[in-house]
Structures are given as structure tokens and as C-alpha cells.
Amino acid sequence: MTTPTDLEFLARLPAAWGFPPGTTIIPAEQGTNNQTFMLRQGGLRFVLRVSQTLSAAQVGAEHRILRWLRQAGLPFQVPEPVAAPSGDTVIETAAGPATVCRWIPGVRPDLTGQTALERFGRAAGLLGEAMRGVPPEDGLGDWRGDPLLAHPAVPHVGALCRQLRAAGISAERAARLDAVARRVGQEWSAGGGALPTQVIHGDLAAWNVLVDEDTGEVSGLLDFEFAGVGFLVQDVMAALFYSGALETRDWQLRTAAFLRGYASVRPLDAAEADALPRLLLARAVGSVLWRAGRWLNGEAQLGEVADRIRKLEDTTRWLDANGGKLRSLAAAGRYG
Fold first, then answer.
1. What is the pLDDT of residue 335?
2. Residue 206 included in any domain
3. Mean pLDDT over all residues of the chain?
4. Could you tell me if residue 312 is inside a domain?
């Protein structure tokens, strides 16, 4: 929560970028990992972000990735950091590394229709192709690691489950988390074949997509703070997981639309198609453990952890019923 002292600090921060007095600063739509604000200077708009999870060096690596992508000829925009008078695009503050980016016009997409999902899929494919040349050393992390180690505050899932029970999570729910985590650990250790690897977005969710309000075309992709080395298909998995495409009765039509758009740029290979269900379950477990780690550190509420456990339970049931169909659909999507 932002305190009055924080507000006074934020009111002074735009001056570090040379913004004149009278520049307005208002809270923007925020996620859970940063404080984000809108700056207005006359008719110009900018986005101020104070990172809660990255170091200044990591934000600098993110900016190198963004610079690469802005030179890749993409048909949509990615954030463009603004340099301060010092020439720096990152300024360290007591609240975390601060950055200012130019505002990208657009609205959040309505992904209930197949056309929108196909456009999203194509944008994901284009982004993946553009990121192929990003040097691995510029990645902010490695998404190929054990999903049970998603957060350093959660070294052992069994111990976490005991802490969750003590905090009020039901014994049955904690036991299910433990069981699914064990399953994911076994599947991850067994592997699933060689998967194409490169720097990926890392959080290619619907809330990180902007579309043109009039045409519906993708106008921007946001939030590259989790960009790191990973399996390329992990971005496909995250996009499907968070798009809502798998949560309706017509999920096969909606998923096929996304995969069709993706395959128009780069079809999945056989190993990637086979790995999708396994990666979906690993992502759902990792989401619980990440939020639980933040809860253990006093940075999140227990209810947020409970919400993600419920999402994990829903995902597990869905995959038990439909994982084979998803694998077949992804394999068919290899051909566009």
C-alpha cells in the first residue's frame, strides 16, 4: 500500500527525468509485483514503474531486451524506456529501481472470440521469432528450472503445506497441493524431450497485451520483467493458461484459433506439442509457490495463495479430463 510519505516521494520522482513542475502523476492499473503510475505532461503520457522484485542491474538487462525488440520490425510496440538527463534509463530509489516508458495506446483485449485469439497467437509467434537473437546472457533468469523452486522463501513444499494449514488453509486443500507438487516434480525430472530454448517473455498473459480499440489488432506487448532463458513453448503455454481459452465449453475451437495464429509464424514441433499439458500443470504449481513465497515474506495476503490453489485444483481436474485432447490439438496445430 502506498503511504503519504510514498506519495510525497513519488511526486518528486518525475523531476529526476527532467519533467517540469505541474506534471501530474496518478496511480495506474497495477499488477502485484510493481508500483505503476501514469505521468501526464501536456498532451503527452508516460508510465512510471517502481519495481518491487528486480534489481537495477536486472532492469537494465530488461531494457537491453526491449532495445533489441524495438529494432526487430515488429508490427506492434513494446515499452520504450526514457533516458533521464544523466543518460540512465534506470534510477535507484529507496522504494526500488524506477523507470519511465512512453505510453503505448491500446486497450486490454477481449479474448472471447476466435479472431482475437488468432491475432494474439500470431503476436506471440512474432515475438518469439524476434527474441531468437537476444543473447542468453541478457535474460533475467532461467525458466527451465525446477518449478518447485519458484520462490526462494519456499525451499520445501511439504513444509509450506504445514505452514498453510497452520494459517487456516484446509488440510484437504493443503494435501492436494502437496500431491500435485509431487506429481509435477516427478514429471519435470522425467523431462519430455529436447525443447527449443531461447530468451522468452516469461509472462505472456492477456493482461500484458494491448489491442487497437477500433481494429482489434495487437498494438503492444508489455512487462518484460520476467524475460529469461526458457523453452519457447512456455510462452505458448502461459498465453493459453491466462487467456481464458481453456475455460469454456468451446475451448477446443478457441485453443485452435490461438495455435493457428501462432503456427502462421512458427508451428510447434512434436516435442513442444507433447509437453504442453505438463508445462501447464507446472505453471499452475509455480504460480501457487511464487505467491506463497511472497506471503511468507509479508508481501501478499493468504487469500491470494488460496485463490491460486483453487486455480491449481481446477487446472489439475481439467488436464486429467482434457490433457490428451490438448496434446492432439497442439500436434494438429503444427501444420497451421
1. 47
2. yes
3. 91
4. yes
Predicted TM-score (pTM) of this structure: 0.88
All cell numbers assigned to 95: 522504494
User: Are 46 and 142 in a shared domain?
Assistant: no
Q: Which of residues 60, 80, 102 is at a domain's end?
A: 102
Residues spanned by the domain of 218 = 114-333
The answer on 146 and 21 residing in a single domain is no
CB-based contact 119:218 (threshold 8 Å): yes
Rounded CA separation 268/331 (Å): 7
Beta bridge partners of 105: none
The CATH number given to whatever domain includes residue 180 is: 3.90.1200.10
Helix 270-296 and helix 302-333, axial crossing angle in degrees, nearest 10: 170
Residues in the chain: 336
> Cell 501514469 belongs to which residue?
38
What is the pLDDT, as a whole number, of residue 64? 95
Give the bridge partners for 198, in sequence order. 230
In this model, does residue 1 exceed pLDDT 50?
no
Q: How far apart are CA 288 and CA 311, in angstroms?
A: 9
Distance from C-alpha of 178 to C-alpha of 121, rounded to nearest angstrom: 33
Cβ neighbors of 141 (< 8 A, separation 6 or more) are 202, 226, 228, 229
Reference 13, options 54, 56, 47, 55; nearest CA is 47
| Number of independent structural domains in the chain | 2
- The confidence score (pLDDT) of residue 7 equals 53
- pLDDT (tens digit per residue) in 72-97: 999 999 999 999 999 999 999 888 89
* 3-class secondary structure, 224: coil
